[in-house]
Structure formats: structure tokens, C-alpha cells
Amino acid sequence: MSRSSRPWRRALTASPALALLLASGCGHAPGAPGAPALPRPSVAVVSTPSSTPYMSMTLVPTPVPSPPPVPPQPKVLVVGLDGVRRDRLLAARAVHFRQLMRAGTFLTGQLEVLKKVRSSSGPGWSTVLTGVAPGKHGVHNNSFEGRQFTKYPDFLTRLERIRPSLHTAAVTGWRYLMDIGAVGALVDWHATSHLKPYKIGDKDAFIIDRMTDLLRTSQVDIAFMHLEVTDAVAHRSGVLGPAYRRAIETVDGYLGRLFGAIRARRTFAAERWTIIVTTDHGHRDEGGHGGVSPKERSIFVLAAGPGIAQGVRSGGARQVDVAATVFAQLGIPLPGSLDGRSISAVRGEK
């Protein structure tokens, strides 16, 4: 090689693209020393009627693996029924509630008697939403004085912080729950009733319309809703008469509408729903609560969904278990500050 060609050789050898090409083994001539072995085609010898052999190349396609199946998406709906005494609930014609009982675990119990903590909606819903006892969330009555929602936020807010991709929603006729921060501002979708004046039951009718629309048409992973007609009727008429029974049966009809809205979702076949129903307190026979009698402290928690025992009835209901069950059913580790456990761990009598 002449001297004039050497600079060209140095430039070619120094080319990064060529260096990469050579490193891949593609710079060798086929059969040259150091060249990689080439793949050999599949060859078959086929005999013709004249017994003259000839070569036939058969190309075997490489199978393409199927994509892994998409796991079902967990979803949770929490329904809060204000002031529902469980014995009156079981005595009513609550068809949809009983369907849910057969499909899940029904726990009964009593609010813990705590100094200065009344059997009222403020402490009850604060415990349900935060998943911690009144000694932590600080709410002892309906004034919400001493609340610690910044330190112990509701489960929707916790989930937004842990997994912002989740779609969260809260719908309630008791606007104060949102105004006071029991349901935080991070929740994706809020709705509450501003009806004034209104008849008993008007707020719930508005709320159920909003929630069923949301469930049918929107992306939602975890939702909380609160209905109050049962409590309003109990305060006016007591819990032993037909008015309270009709209020319970009305709410039961709302449960049926919620079930229908979930089934009507376009993505329902790829979802796995958990439904939790609970209450904040009971009532005296004549109506009213806030004291420490067993009827005022009567509560229940009903949950149905994947991994939750079916047709089980047991004692030991605790409001702090609602938030823990939400986390467990969504497959998210429980925050250490929660006081409850998942209802999926309960194995009682059928």
C-alpha cells in the first residue's frame, strides 16, 4: 500500500461506526478466520418419482409469545348510612343489603365508651374516614373541635398521596364533612348537596343521582358516599315505627341502584369490586343518640369482595377497620398509623 493511502486507512479504522460494526463481528468475510458462524437453513432431501434427489429449504417461523393477561383492576365503594340501628335494619325488607350479606362478611358491635366522646356523627365518620380512633383524630362531638385531620387524613387523601394515579371520589349530603376537612381537598371528585330548603330525603336523592352517574360513566378506583335520610327520620319519628322502616328500605333501593351502575360500567368485566357498608351510630327507640346506651352505640360493618369470606356473621365490628379494608382490597400496604385491620382476615360463623 502506498504512503498516500495510509491516512485514509487510519481515518477508516478510527471511525466509531466502523468500530461498532467490527465489534459486532459483521466486518469479517464469511468463512474468514475469526468470522462468526452463520446460521444454517433447515435442509430436507426429497425424492421425486424418478428418484432424482433435490434440495428443498424449509423456513420454520419463530412462534410469537402471547402477551401476559392484564390482571383485573381492584375497585372499592364505601357507603356510609347515617344512624342505622342494625336490629331495625335486619327487621326491614332490605333485599339488596341481604344480598350483600350473603356475598360477604357482616360484623356487628358497639362503639367503644370513651371519655368525652359522644355517639355522634362527627366522631363516627371521622373514625371511618381516617382509620384511627378518636384519641388520634381528636373529634369528640359534632363541633369537630380538636380535629387532627392534617396528621391523620381520610383514606382517600392518603391514597392520593401514596398513589396519585388513583381516581378518588366523595359524595355526601352533609357538606360539613368537606368544609371541615374530614374529606380532604386532594380528592379528585367532590359532590355535596346545597339544597335549601329541602324535605327529608331530598339530599339523598340528589346524592344517589350523582354517584350512580359517576359509577356508570367515569374512571373511579375508590369512592365514598354518605346518606343521611335514616338518621333524619329517626330523630323525627323514632326507630320502631313504619317511617324508619321505609327510610331503611329506601336506602336499600339506593344500594340496588349502585349495584346496577357498577354492572353497567363499560370496563366492568375487567374490574373486581369491593363494597363496604357501615354506619356511624345507633339510636334510642324514641330517636336520638349521643349517649352511652347499647342502642345508641350499635354499629355494623358489612364488606363483600375478593378475598372476603362469604356469608359470614360475627361480632367485633370496628369503624377503624373500614380504611384498613380499603387499602387491603386495593392491594396497597397499610400505613403504619392506621388502627384497624382488613375484614378479609375475619373468619366467623356462617
From TrEMBL:
Keyword field: Signal
GO MF annotations, alphabetized: hydrolase activity
Pfam family, one: Phosphodiest
Keyword field contains Signal: yes
Signal peptide: 1-29
InterPro entries xrefs: Alkaline_phosphatase_core_sf (IPR017850), Phosphodiest/P_Trfase (IPR002591)
Name this protein carries in UniProt: Uncharacterized protein of the AP superfamily-like protein
UniProt organism field: Streptosporangium roseum (strain ATCC 12428 / DSM 43021 / JCM 3005 / KCTC 9067 / NCIMB 10171 / NRRL 2505 / NI 9100)
